[in-house]
Amino acid sequence: ERSVRLRGWYELMMENKEELARIITAENGKPLKEAQGEILYSASFLEWFAEEARRVYGDVIPASANDRRILVLKQPVGVAAIITPWNFPSAMITRKVGAALAAGCTVVVKPAEDTPLSALALGELANQAGIPAGVYNVVPCSRQQTAAVGEVLCTDPLVAKISFTGSTATGKILLKHAAGTVKRVSMELGGHAPFIVFDSANVDRAVAGALASKYRNSGQTCVCTNRFLVQKGIHDKFVEKFAKAIERELHVGSGFDAKTTQGPLINEKAVEKVERHINDAVSQGASIVTGGKRHSLGKNFFEPTLLSNVTTKMLCTQEETFGPLAPVIKFETEAEAIAIANAANVGLAGYFYSQDPAQIWRVAEQLEVGMVGVNEGIVSSVESPFGGVKQSGLGREGSKYGIDEYLEIKYVCFGGL
């Protein structure tokens, strides 16, 4: 029954995909084409978990005594609190809620204060799909009330599970709250993704991957590249081609304008952070190759920016920018690149371009991240486990592993046989 209802919800999302995409663009400024892509991605989680609902397999384990049998059952954890960010206001909900409902849990969704409408629109479609009242619940709230609402969701003993996507700092606060009642937690936290281009790379493919990985959603995704590491032999060629691609292919404008690839940043604070990172880098010797300032369109629009002569001492290589800024560091050896990439205390995604098979194996295994793109700048898909290592989080979402986050394993010893 859960599978059928989730499938119905998926079909309603597909029927209403244009309206849902327009809500996203109106809420967070994402270009309409990207918003349409998000809705397809978002709906795919409901389709995927509708199918996974029927595959929650238990186990029968051979026992050490003839008069007993060992059974393993999987049962829903209970009420799940779902706390989601503004940058993917639809997909971050369905990736969690699809798994939770497939497992048999009910959910309370607290969407980001900037983007509550996507969550409410999904609620309307859930009602139309016949998902029972009280199963999918939405609690929008103001920025002023966010901390208080988050605390209630994490401390209430009726809540069995917390799933959060957002900053590492906020994740740590929620973990402390959840510890009081020892709740199950999934955390998909901040990233600081390296993008390494080795001398053996196909430079044109690396530039295309860099453009996709860095500037999607104006640099406001947790798996966006934050640091480009380019080997000495091809550094100058890569920077030159990357700058030309930025100037040729990226267009800043309203998300509703068909030619726009770069919408506004989410708010003034986000713009100020990009400016601060650029000013800090330039003051320490970095060069602005292209961009570098606010766009003439308005206060939340920023020019796609490329910096060269960047060092590891600059803020933009120590913190996640979450904006359209690409800093390039020149390196000499593979070991040096891996050391710089792994120096961060977070590890969500990492990317590298190489055509050396031995190097590909070495680097893929040594990068301290949960997801690696090899000669590929976009790695997210419903079939793949999404999540990070170190301070980038706990658990995995999507894929065949995603439903496990909402299930308890119960051991039943059947004796006296």
Automatic annotation (TrEMBL):
Keywords: Disulfide bond, Mitochondrion, NAD, Oxidoreductase, Phosphoprotein, Transit peptide. SUPFAM superfamilies: ALDH-like. The keyword Kinase does not apply. Pfam families: Aldedh. One of its GO terms (biological process) is gamma-aminobutyric acid catabolic process. InterPro entries: Ald_DH/histidinol_DH (IPR016161), Ald_DH_C (IPR016163), Ald_DH_CS_CYS (IPR016160), Ald_DH_N (IPR016162), Aldehyde_DH_dom (IPR015590), Aldehyde_DH_Superfamily (IPR050740), Succ_semiAld_DH (IPR010102). Pathway: Amino-acid degradation; 4-aminobutanoate degradation. The keyword Kinase does not apply. It is found in: Mitochondrion. Its main location: mitochondrion. One of its GO terms (molecular function) is succinate-semialdehyde dehydrogenase (NAD+) activity. Transmembrane segments: none annotated. Its EC number is 1.2.1.24. One of its GO terms (cellular component) is mitochondrion. It comes from the Eukaryota. It catalyses: succinate semialdehyde + NAD(+) + H2O = succinate + NADH + 2 H(+). Gene3D superfamilies: Aldehyde Dehydrogenase, Chain A, domain 1 (3.40.605.10), Aldehyde Dehydrogenase, Chain A, domain 2 (3.40.309.10). Residues 1-412 form the Aldehyde dehydrogenase domain. Belongs to the aldehyde dehydrogenase family. Homotetramer. Catalyzes one step in the degradation of the inhibitory neurotransmitter gamma-aminobutyric acid (GABA). This is Succinate-semialdehyde dehydrogenase. The gene is Aldh5a1.
